[in-house]
Amino acid sequence: MHEILRSLFSWIPAQNAAVTSHGLAAASLTSPEFLLACAPLMVLCVLSVIPLWARLNDSPWIFAITHSLPFFLLTFQDSLGDAGQVIDGVGARYHMSEPLASLAHYWFFRLLHEPFNIGAKEAIAWSTRAGGVLYVFFIAQVSLRLYPDLSPTRRLLHRLLFLTAGVSLLTYGYVENPPLALLGEQLWICATLVFLNKPSYLNAILTAAALSLATATHGRAGFLFPALALALIIPRGSIVTRALRLITGCSAYFGLLAGLVGYIFYIEPNHISGGHYGNVTGGGNRQMFVALSTIITRDHWEPYIRSLLIAGGILAPVGLVRLITMWRNLSGLDLWCAGYLLADLTFLLLWEFDYGPYLDWDLVFSSVVPLILLASRVLVPSRAPAVLLLPFLLITVYLTNTYAVMANGAPLSPTLVTRSGPPMTTGPCAQEGLLRTYFEDPLLTQPISSPESDVPHHEYGPGGVHIPNPGRPVGATFDGFIKISEAGRYRFFLIGQRNVRMRIGDRTVVDKWIDYEWRVGAEREIRFDTPGNYPIRIEFYTANQGFPLMLEIESARYPRRKITINDVCHD
Description:
It contains 23 helices and 17 strands. It is an alpha+beta fold and 571 residues long.
């Protein structure tokens, strides 16, 4: 199995071999942590073959309650890239690439932070969990629209396809804005099914409004507009009727977006973060689209197509089967599904990803939705017993959780607050700061400096703190104690580059030794039962010559602030 997975993940370009090896080792079925991450979805898949359970969960709200449990049982993964910016920006209402998502994060943070000592990451987690409940609710509604004459067991199969494939991974596995857009996308799918069945002007407006909601939540959904336009002209009618439906829907779609943007610019411009355009004009490289000549090159399109297949597990190829066979007896719904997939693939192929499909994996995982929808059109109406389709679901759970390990560096863990071990009971801890030593090897065994007192909050490299051997990789260890003045729940924020690890007391709270040049952020909560000096050790290693190492702390008693030399000590 590992060799098969290794060949799959070797498809993704620029992926360090050490990352693959570490990820596959962590995603072993003999690993209790990995099995625990997979268990909630696996249990729900196994229950699906029980007719009584299927009948109970045929109600969309009951399904939403029972099948959103994984979002609450598992923690959100550590932030890579944009998610760190989202966590830092929860104090501003609007980021103009995803204004409604940032608005949701903002209000959850405002409502939870001070009264409940909830940090930025957890506030975003709760807003995304709320979105996850609505997401599975709309999945259930879609299944009722698609398969009104099938049994509850078959409709439950449709719903589980979306929970086991990579789409669900976004919802409880990545602290960012695409998860909230997915519920809008499912609402749009449901509204489109209603419109195709009853193509009134009111339903055209509702369909356009649903996609407008998804677009305002995350800009990627705007690339689905051609599929919206296609849906508006598919139902029967004269050329004038179809044109009027198209004009009505387009007016509703763009009008709602323009109204929101106008309100923000003219009423609340002081709440905009990330500039007026955010990354609307492109990613971090400020280039929205690749050159058309680039799209046809194999080095460009092949990684995205292969990443889609991994993100969708073994469901994605089934979706492709439907795409090939639907043309023998084409329906309006099939035609819309094909347009939906084409619009999403256009986004993947045109968009200039900053770091490729591996590190921009949230966008790749979002784009697996039309493939799963097509797979549903093959599997759900089939005569294959549900028990025979169960392996499809379980293998997909395994694949998508393996991908989560690749990007996260570790399996998703239960949502529990770590309790520290006991504080140091003896020793003077007489020197301020931590004892810092620089190293030149990733194992941190070959020191290139003498131990000195330092604080782990610096910009390193050009313009920052000088490091030995400029132009070469560097690592460091910080050892000593952190002073906890009173018992309670504390929150630590650690930002580093490529490889970062932190241990407090007898707990390793951050282990992001991913060996990939990417800025890593981690937010961790620890409960200290007694005040005192607790052992702390921080390690990093990077080849980047301009990077940060920043440690900050927060509690109910004081706001987030950087660690100072007075907060730590060593012997």
